[in-house]
Amino acid sequence: MSSDDLSDASVTVVGGGFGGLSSACYLADAGADVTILEKNEQMGGRASTLEVEGFRFDMGPSWYLMPDVFERFFGSFDREPSDYYELEHLDPHYKVFFKDGDEVEIPKEPALAADVFEEYEENGAEKLRGYLDSSERNYELAMNNFIYEDRSRLRNWIDPSVLRAIPLGLQLLGSMEGYVHNRFENDKLRQILQYTLVFLGGSPKNTPALYNLMSHVDFNLGVYYPEGGMTGVADSIAEMARELGVEIRTDVEVTGVRNSGRVLRTTDGEYRADATVCDADYAHFELDVLENHQRTHGEEYWESRTYAPSAFLVYWGVEGDVDELEHHTLVLPTDWDQHFHNIFENPGWPMDPAYYLCVASESDDGIAPDGFSNLFTLVPIASGLEDNEKIRERYKNKILDDMAENTGVDIRDRIVVEEVFTVDDFASRYNSYEGTALGLAHTLTQTAFMRPSHRSSKVERLYYTGSYTDPGIGVPMCLVSGEHTANTVKDEL
């Protein structure tokens, strides 16, 4: 059986997030008999949908970034994203309210964004153009040499193309905070260039400067809204997976592994296959599903990791419009250091929070009843925080007050639907370790081959994919992770 022909092989994929869906598609396309077992009632992992009283909310990711990765993914199967969903290029990309009363919109055209920078800093336009040029170079270098190429093992880095890139890489090992501060003087511009680090689960202080490539993603590649939201994207990939022959079973939770990864114990009986790909939360799977002798990493390892934030999410159905807000809106304190300190250094509920507001009904009139708005807020918070109804109620009211004060939007008398989702919900619905919303943060010591491996070192036919593995956090990265894991399975079967 060649690595391009798995017609005699069977694979069970645990978890229907983007990593699991991606692996399933690549393995089925190679001829394998693939079954996905998903714990919840929906596919997409954290890209779930909340439907209540005519409102439909994206519960997880809501930013469609890096369209080139989606095009490459669908192209692997002779398809295009447009075969399944349409994209709207948002303009503006997003709006920012600063808590000193200032506000700014970032337009979709990079040239117009440069004009915005010129308003805040002398030579700001020229500085941004130079910054984006370097960001684009770093993006192309990273994608071609480190993202699309599987370098999840140290030995994979002994390669001429990698060695040529090392001098540049060494320049980018400092923090994003230092890198940006050396190039821009205005604190608001610095924040605009660093807010995307939240998508990587990090802060300006602990994320390597090599991730300045996210500015190319933000300004040059653009921000889009997919038809049906990010859940629509997950549903589209699940549809393509079925077209490729994948069987999908929901409401099936895996409870144990035996026979070198070939047999899974589940709430629906036993499943047998030649290999298992795990897209469930990596730490949960090792600590709660595997037995001690089957674990690559023990409790001490997982306790010592730096985790991406959890999130305090409130989904609101609101009567009337919220015209002051754009599809994507950020509310930022003029000094956000304390908020990040409350996430990574001294965990606690931020008293002056930075947060995100999404009004997807600005772009999609099918997700709210006529005359109503679909609004949710996301506050990054530390994973593992104490979470109870009293805390939730108090913090929800704090955000409502903050939103009214800093954006001019007071919805308290117009709320018709309200659902809170936070730390304990992430832990119970997704089995996420400490209630993290994303997995492992992208710190210097948790990047590339220093992230957990795609292969189990203790269970012969057990493999991992998803945000804990290389290349990391985010929907596009999980799609690539799925490809890397599938290639590993194909090679080793």
Characterization of this structure:
By secondary structure, the chain is α/β, with parallel strands linked by helices. It has 3 domains: 10-48 and 63-86 and 227-305 and 451-492, 3-Layer(bba) Sandwich (FAD/NAD(P)-binding domain); 110-221, Guanine Nucleotide Dissociation Inhibitor, domain 1 (Orthogonal Bundle), CATH 1.10.405; 307-430, 2-Layer Sandwich (Guanine Nucleotide Dissociation Inhibitor, domain 2). It has 15 helices and 19 strands. The protein has helices at 18-29, 67-75, 110-120, 124-147, 160-171, 176-181, 187-194, 214-221, 229-243, 282-289, 299-303, 337-345, 389-407, 423-430, 475-492, and strands at 10-14, 33-37, 49-52, 55-58, 87-89, 94-98, 103-106, 224-226, 247-249, 254-258, 263-266, 269-272, 275-278, 310-319, 328-332, 355-358, 372-381, 415-421, 462-464. The strands form 5 sheets. The chain has a 7-stranded mixed β-sheet, with helices on both faces. It has a 5-stranded parallel β-sheet with strand order 9-2-1-13-19, covered by helices on one side. A hairpin with a 2-residue loop joins strand 11 (263-266) and strand 12 (269-272). Helix 1 (18-29) packs parallel to helix 15 (475-492) and helix 2 (67-75) packs parallel to helix 15 (475-492).
**How many discrete domains?**
3
Strands in their spatial order, largest beta sheet: 7-6-15-16-17-14-18
In angstroms, what is the radius of gyration?
Answer: 22 Å
The geometry reads as globular
The total of beta strands comes to: 19
What is the fold's blueprint, element by element?
Elements: E1 10-14, H1 18-29, E2 33-37, E3 49-52, E4 55-58, H2 67-75, E5 87-89, E6 94-98, E7 103-106, H3 110-120, H4 124-147, H5 160-171, H6 176-181, H7 187-194, H8 214-221, E8 224-226, H9 229-243, E9 247-249, E10 254-258, E11 263-266, E12 269-272, E13 275-278, H10 282-289, H11 299-303, E14 310-319, E15 328-332, H12 337-345, E16 355-358, E17 372-381, H13 389-407, E18 415-421, H14 423-430, E19 462-464, H15 475-492
Parallel strand pairs: 1-2, 1-13, 2-9, 6-15, 13-19
Antiparallel strand pairs: 3-4, 5-8, 6-7, 10-11, 11-12, 14-17, 14-18, 15-16, 16-17
Helix pairs in contact: 1-9, 1-15, 2-15, 3-4, 4-8
